[in-house]
Design a protein that fits this description.
The chain is mainly alpha-helical. It has 17 helices and seven strands. Among the domains are: 47 residues, no CATH class; 136 residues, Gyrase A, domain 2 (2-Layer Sandwich), CATH 3.30.1360. The longest helix is centred in the first third of the chain and has 28 residues.
């Protein structure tokens, strides 16, 4: 019989939990002994009773905290989430009505900037109302269907379209569950982010964490490191593209460059020919190499694919010259009035950029989520298969499903022995979207 002693302790503050783990590296005593001392002295005195005479970064890996951010722009939320270690949640523009949300404006007081943001919200409301009416007529409630679920499904589909007209300055909420070490390292980097909003959030959060966890946030000033992050702020935080004078509406989401990988290595894929649904590809196949993909995708759907942390997905710099994704216009039947309003908005953004010397990074706040961006992904084979299968699902936003299907096409051609589970059903209204909710049992 296995005599391993197993103890679960989660009732103490993060720093105390971290120190109790750290003591394993310098003591053979049971954690029960350390727990007794904490209960006798209290967490603060327990922490203060130890001097850490070696690098304490690894100790910070053992303590976790959860930070909740509210009222920050979607751009700032993406900056916080830009880490392969990120764990957290964000308000979904596909399920929540954003018409009453505040908007972050870096040019507050500038008449043209406020007009552009106001017009985006009016366009969002106009499209949302139109789509709700259109969908209600096209997909009426059927006998036996739950009206509450049907209403949620109608709204979810309408949000899928309307979200494309939201400016990236729209505010949202995001949570971040992180180790104390990662919190410091990420926030330190964000202190030098190109967006002032992000820099402010990082400095305030660091100060709050220092007050709450003084032992873990007592880092000394490092001017050399500061200068490094200042000088490289743009390259560290954005996959940079450049504005041009041309504005085009782009509908297709073609993969622009051939997916590349090391095809010289030989693997036996036949053992994957009968893999069950939802099973993972073994890590062993990561040795095959890295797959590099590049494609255009609207920023709204980029936010979804950026959530897959096991690959590398840099945040692209939004440029209005990359064009508005035509899928959104197709859904409103190329309504002339909406098309004219959209064109006028792009013209005003161009004027804002040229007359008021606004930076490329700040211009993003006035750019809609339906605007295309250049995406670059680096995945290993297990991640390629996982994303292609998951994002091919009928509940996934249609513009992102196109990318998943193209990934699947490549995989099926290059690795015919791998059993794939790709949902290739035609995009359509799906009442099951109305069941994807969190509701109180009371």
């Amino acid at each position: 019989m296995n005599e391993t002693k197993i103890t679960i302790i989660d009732e103490f503050p993060p720093e105390t939990i971290a120190m109790m783990q750290a003591l394993y590296s310098r003591s053979s005593e049971s954690v029960e002994k350390h727990k007794e001392k904490v209960l006798q002295t209290g967490s603060d005195k327990f922490m203060n009773s130890y001097y850490v005479g070696y690098g304490h970064s690894s100790i910070g890996d053992c303590g976790n905290t959860t930070i909740f951010f509210e009222g920050l722009s979607i751009l700032a939320a993406k900056a916080i989430q830009d880490s392969q270690k990120f764990n957290g949640q964000e308000t979904s523009s596909r399920f929540i009505n954003f018409s009453e949300q505040n908007i972050y404006n870096p040019l507050k007081g500038n008449h043209l900037s406020e007009e552009i943001l106001y017009n985006w919200m009016q366009l969002y409301i106009k499209v949302l109302d139109y789509m709700q009416y259109k969908l209600t007529i096209k997909f009426p409630l059927k006998e036996g269907e739950d009206i509450s679920i049907w209403n949620k499904a109608i709204n979810a589909r309408a949000f899928d379209v309307a979200r494309g007209f939201l400016p990236a300055g729209i505010t949202t909420q995001t949570s971040w569950h992180t180790s104390l070490r990662d919190a410091y390292e990420k926030l330190y980097e964000l202190k030098f982010h190109p967006l002032e909003e992000v820099r402010d959030i990082a400095n305030i959060t660091l100060e709050d964490l220092k007050q709450k966890y003084p032992s873990s946030f007592s880092h000394k000033e490092n001017k050399e490191l500061d200068n490094y992050y200042k000088e490289n702020a743009l390259n560290i935080n954005y996959l940079e593209t450049y504005l041009t004078d041309d504005i085009s509406f782009v509908c297709d989401n073609n993969i622009l460059t051939k997916v590349s990988y090391d095809s010289n290595k030989h693997f036996d894929f036949k053992i994957l020919s009968n893999r069950p649904k939802y099973s993972k590809i073994p890590k062993y196949y990561s040795k095959l190499g890295i797959f590099n993909l590049k494609f255009k995708l609207d920023y709204g759907s980029f936010r979804d694919i950026q959530r897959h942390r096991k690959g590398l997905c840099e945040i692209p710099l939004m440029c209005y010259s990359d064009g508005f994704n035509g899928w959104y216009l197709e859904q409103v039947d190329y309504d002339k009035d909406i098309g004219v309003l959209l064109y006028e908005q792009y013209q005003k953004m161009q004027i804002l950029y040229q007359l008021y010397n606004i930076s490329d990074v700040d211009l993003q706040y006035f750019t809609p989520l339906g605007n295309n961006v250049i995406c670059e992904l680096s995945y290993d084979l297990p991640q390629m298969v996982y994303v292609a299968e998951l994002r091919s699902n009928l509940s996934v936003h249609p513009t992102l499903r196109k990318i998943a299907h193209k990934m699947a096409d490549f995989l099926e051609q290059e690795f015919p022995d791998i059993k794939l589970y790709i949902d290739r059903r035609e995009d359509k209204f799906n009442i099951n979207r109305g069941k994807q909710d969190i509701v109180s049992k009371n």
